[in-house]
Design goal:
This is MxaK protein. The protein is mostly helical. It contains six helices and no strands.
Length: 178
Protein backbone atom coordinates (compact mmCIF):
# COMPACT_ATOMS: atom_id res chain seq x y z
CA UNK A 1 0.00 0.00 0.00
CA UNK A 2 2.84 2.42 0.82
CA UNK A 3 4.51 1.84 -2.54
CA UNK A 4 1.20 2.37 -4.31
CA UNK A 5 0.69 5.69 -2.48
CA UNK A 6 4.27 6.69 -3.18
CA UNK A 7 3.80 5.99 -6.93
CA UNK A 8 0.52 7.93 -6.99
CA UNK A 9 2.17 10.89 -5.24
CA UNK A 10 5.00 10.91 -7.79
CA UNK A 11 2.48 10.74 -10.63
CA UNK A 12 0.32 13.55 -9.28
CA UNK A 13 3.39 15.62 -8.40
CA UNK A 14 4.81 15.32 -11.91
CA UNK A 15 1.42 16.19 -13.43
CA UNK A 16 1.23 19.24 -11.14
CA UNK A 17 4.75 20.37 -12.09
CA UNK A 18 3.95 19.92 -15.80
CA UNK A 19 0.73 21.93 -15.31
CA UNK A 20 2.57 24.76 -13.56
CA UNK A 21 5.23 24.86 -16.29
CA UNK A 22 2.49 24.88 -18.97
CA UNK A 23 0.60 27.66 -17.18
CA UNK A 24 3.76 29.77 -16.96
CA UNK A 25 4.50 29.21 -20.67
CA UNK A 26 0.97 30.11 -21.79
CA UNK A 27 0.96 33.11 -19.45
CA UNK A 28 4.18 34.33 -21.08
CA UNK A 29 2.64 33.82 -24.55
CA UNK A 30 -0.50 35.71 -23.53
CA UNK A 31 1.58 38.60 -22.17
CA UNK A 32 3.66 38.84 -25.38
CA UNK A 33 0.53 38.74 -27.55
CA UNK A 34 -1.08 41.45 -25.44
CA UNK A 35 2.02 43.60 -25.93
CA UNK A 36 1.84 42.93 -29.68
CA UNK A 37 -1.87 43.85 -29.75
CA UNK A 38 -1.11 47.04 -27.85
CA UNK A 39 1.50 47.98 -30.48
CA UNK A 40 -0.99 47.33 -33.26
CA UNK A 41 -3.73 49.36 -31.56
CA UNK A 42 -1.39 52.26 -30.94
CA UNK A 43 -0.44 52.33 -34.62
CA UNK A 44 3.25 51.68 -34.16
CA UNK A 45 5.25 49.52 -36.52
CA UNK A 46 5.83 45.87 -35.69
CA UNK A 47 9.53 45.14 -35.95
CA UNK A 48 9.48 41.65 -34.46
CA UNK A 49 10.84 39.13 -37.00
CA UNK A 50 8.59 36.42 -35.51
CA UNK A 51 5.56 38.09 -37.11
CA UNK A 52 6.52 38.87 -40.74
CA UNK A 53 2.90 39.23 -41.88
CA UNK A 54 2.10 41.79 -39.19
CA UNK A 55 5.41 43.51 -39.83
CA UNK A 56 4.53 44.03 -43.50
CA UNK A 57 0.91 44.87 -42.78
CA UNK A 58 1.78 47.60 -40.28
CA UNK A 59 4.47 48.93 -42.64
CA UNK A 60 1.92 49.18 -45.46
CA UNK A 61 -0.62 50.79 -43.15
CA UNK A 62 1.98 53.31 -42.00
CA UNK A 63 2.92 54.14 -45.60
CA UNK A 64 -0.71 54.80 -46.43
CA UNK A 65 -1.15 56.90 -43.29
CA UNK A 66 1.77 59.07 -44.41
CA UNK A 67 0.29 59.52 -47.94
CA UNK A 68 2.79 57.20 -49.62
CA UNK A 69 -0.02 55.44 -51.44
CA UNK A 70 2.05 53.90 -54.21
CA UNK A 71 4.37 52.08 -51.81
CA UNK A 72 1.48 51.11 -49.55
CA UNK A 73 -0.29 49.42 -52.48
CA UNK A 74 2.94 47.65 -53.41
CA UNK A 75 3.46 46.39 -49.86
CA UNK A 76 -0.14 45.17 -49.61
CA UNK A 77 0.30 43.42 -52.98
CA UNK A 78 3.38 41.67 -51.60
CA UNK A 79 1.23 40.46 -48.70
CA UNK A 80 -1.26 39.04 -51.17
CA UNK A 81 1.50 37.26 -53.09
CA UNK A 82 3.05 35.85 -49.91
CA UNK A 83 -0.22 34.50 -48.55
CA UNK A 84 -1.32 30.96 -49.38
CA UNK A 85 -3.72 30.65 -52.33
CA UNK A 86 -6.56 29.33 -50.18
CA UNK A 87 -6.38 32.35 -47.86
CA UNK A 88 -9.20 34.81 -48.34
CA UNK A 89 -7.89 38.22 -47.44
CA UNK A 90 -10.68 40.76 -47.97
CA UNK A 91 -9.06 43.28 -45.63
CA UNK A 92 -5.95 43.40 -47.84
CA UNK A 93 -8.05 44.10 -50.95
CA UNK A 94 -10.00 46.70 -48.98
CA UNK A 95 -6.80 48.49 -47.91
CA UNK A 96 -5.41 48.35 -51.46
CA UNK A 97 -8.64 49.92 -52.72
CA UNK A 98 -8.55 52.62 -50.05
CA UNK A 99 -4.99 53.58 -50.94
CA UNK A 100 -5.77 53.63 -54.66
CA UNK A 101 -8.88 55.73 -54.02
CA UNK A 102 -6.90 58.22 -51.96
CA UNK A 103 -4.17 58.23 -54.60
CA UNK A 104 -6.74 59.19 -57.20
CA UNK A 105 -8.16 61.91 -54.97
CA UNK A 106 -4.82 63.67 -54.61
CA UNK A 107 -4.31 63.83 -58.37
CA UNK A 108 -5.14 67.14 -59.98
CA UNK A 109 -7.89 67.54 -62.55
CA UNK A 110 -7.52 68.86 -66.07
CA UNK A 111 -8.76 72.32 -67.09
CA UNK A 112 -12.03 70.89 -68.41
CA UNK A 113 -12.79 69.16 -65.09
CA UNK A 114 -11.91 65.65 -66.19
CA UNK A 115 -9.50 63.48 -64.27
CA UNK A 116 -5.92 62.95 -65.25
CA UNK A 117 -5.10 59.53 -66.66
CA UNK A 118 -3.34 58.52 -63.42
CA UNK A 119 -6.40 59.33 -61.35
CA UNK A 120 -8.69 57.50 -63.77
CA UNK A 121 -6.43 54.45 -63.60
CA UNK A 122 -6.28 54.60 -59.78
CA UNK A 123 -10.08 54.80 -59.57
CA UNK A 124 -10.65 51.83 -61.87
CA UNK A 125 -8.10 49.76 -59.96
CA UNK A 126 -9.72 50.80 -56.66
CA UNK A 127 -13.11 49.72 -58.02
CA UNK A 128 -11.70 46.30 -58.91
CA UNK A 129 -10.12 45.93 -55.45
CA UNK A 130 -13.34 46.94 -53.65
CA UNK A 131 -15.31 44.45 -55.73
CA UNK A 132 -12.79 41.71 -54.93
CA UNK A 133 -13.05 42.54 -51.24
CA UNK A 134 -16.83 42.32 -51.45
CA UNK A 135 -16.65 38.99 -53.30
CA UNK A 136 -14.65 37.58 -50.42
CA UNK A 137 -16.70 39.26 -47.67
CA UNK A 138 -20.10 40.37 -49.01
CA UNK A 139 -21.36 41.78 -45.70
CA UNK A 140 -18.56 44.36 -45.35
CA UNK A 141 -20.41 47.64 -44.89
CA UNK A 142 -17.28 49.79 -45.10
CA UNK A 143 -16.34 48.31 -48.48
CA UNK A 144 -19.88 48.83 -49.76
CA UNK A 145 -19.89 52.44 -48.60
CA UNK A 146 -16.47 53.19 -50.07
CA UNK A 147 -17.43 51.57 -53.38
CA UNK A 148 -20.58 53.70 -53.60
CA UNK A 149 -18.52 56.77 -52.75
CA UNK A 150 -16.04 55.83 -55.46
CA UNK A 151 -18.89 55.42 -57.96
CA UNK A 152 -20.16 58.91 -57.16
CA UNK A 153 -16.69 60.40 -57.62
CA UNK A 154 -16.14 58.48 -60.85
CA UNK A 155 -19.49 59.55 -62.29
CA UNK A 156 -18.58 63.22 -62.04
CA UNK A 157 -15.25 63.30 -63.86
CA UNK A 158 -14.50 60.13 -65.75
CA UNK A 159 -14.92 61.56 -69.25
CA UNK A 160 -11.78 61.03 -71.26
CA UNK A 161 -9.46 63.96 -71.64
CA UNK A 162 -9.05 65.61 -75.02
CA UNK A 163 -6.47 63.83 -77.11
CA UNK A 164 -3.95 65.73 -79.16
CA UNK A 165 -4.70 64.75 -82.76
CA UNK A 166 -2.04 66.81 -84.50
CA UNK A 167 0.20 63.77 -84.99
CA UNK A 168 -2.43 61.38 -86.33
CA UNK A 169 -1.97 59.84 -89.74
CA UNK A 170 -5.07 59.80 -91.84
CA UNK A 171 -3.89 57.08 -94.18
CA UNK A 172 -1.49 54.22 -94.21
CA UNK A 173 0.96 56.14 -96.38
CA UNK A 174 4.14 57.12 -94.59
CA UNK A 175 4.65 60.80 -94.04
CA UNK A 176 7.53 62.46 -95.89
CA UNK A 177 7.74 60.33 -99.05
CA UNK A 178 7.45 61.99 -102.52
Amino acid sequence: MATHAKTANWLWGSITVAGVIGAIYFGWQLQSLQALNHKIQSGSLIKDKDYPYLQRFTAAYDQGKHADYKHAVQTYAQLLEASPPEAELPHIHFNIANNLFLSGLVRTVNEDGSFQDEARYAYTQAKIAYEQSLRLQPADKAAKFNLSLLHSVMARGMQAGAKDQSHMELSNLPIGLP
